[in-house]
Amino acid sequence: MDMGIQRFAFGQVQDRLTHVPAVVLVGPRQVGKTTLAQAIADQWPAGATYFDLEAPPDLDRLEDPYSALLRLAPMLGVIDEAQRMPSVFPVLRSVIDQNRRSGMRHGQFLLLGSAWLDLTMAATESLAGRVSLVELGGVNIDEAAAAGIDANTLWLRGGFPDALLAETNQESLQWRTDLIATYLERDVPLFGRRVPAETLRRLWTMLAHASGGLFNASALAENLSVTGPTIKSYVDLLVDLKLVRRLEPWSTNTSKRLTKSPKIYLRDTGLLHALLRLRDLDDLMGHPAVGASYESLAVECLLGATKDYDPAFYRAGRAGADEVDLLLIRSGLPQVAIEIKLGSAPVVGAGFHRACDDLGVTTRYVVHPDDPRGAYERNGLTVIGLAELVGRLRQGWQRVEGQP
Question: Which one is the CATH code of 141-400: 2.40.50.630, 1.10.10.10, 3.30.565.10, 3.30.310.10?
Fold first, then answer.
């Protein structure tokens, strides 16, 4: 892995490959999918063969895909940017079924891709019952800490490994700026969307300023002189590319007025800061968006550490006075309520507790930058550092909810 950054997804993908014929690994471009896949391939007992569907020589090797892929067994076939060749998925199904008849039931293919919707739709439609999906996000706070990278560096630079490991903040900022340009000028057209690059850049920057806020398509449309449906389609694209998170509100039977608009987060704070032209921690700490930026970091770290919950937020009452930043939903019910604060002595308002009472949630956390004192109880909730709660989530929901 990149200079010792060990990713939790490594073990997850390895485990899935021992149970299903194919695993689809998705995530933004440059987030480390290829590095992770190569590390798995290097350790695969029967060996592995790698195809990059953006490389003409590898496309030539797949001119007759059925024969080429059938010959791989018992090796692992790694296919990078698999969404570039939708026609390969029905072939994969035939090869997997043929291999099964020969006694090879799992660990046949690892597919990588940068477009979640395109890739997962193709995989689930053609490979139903034969595939498992794994998402690779940016480097999480515990993964960074294990590699000797402090939380503020992760927050400033974001979770793309090359940006995180750059020699200087300036080099990191330049890398992130170049990645934004690559998305705008190359990747968006590559995925077949006719979106003016400058319009999408302006929208992306507006979303950076408003990260953690409610999505208002009408206001964005007016500022960009386009229609509301056009704005929604552009945001759909950024969500599909795993650059933006759309967090839906939790609805419940209540007489209170509920917010119905989703929240929008930029998923990588490094890209957020590049769009806002923030060069270092001094720039960040003095910017009006500093609190929203930390909330964006916390939401991604927490959700990247658990697959046991579905996420939502809650906002009700006049002017949204009763609010929970992040709800963790399991079995169709809110189980955990999380408030996110930047300060080292976080104060939670009465609206948070009213919201939790409305929802019947007793497991309540206020998350803040990690503190040497560790977690402690106060006024009916647990005050806890971000990395410590990420660690609890890694261990499973029983500990998060205080169960034995």
Answer: 1.10.10.10
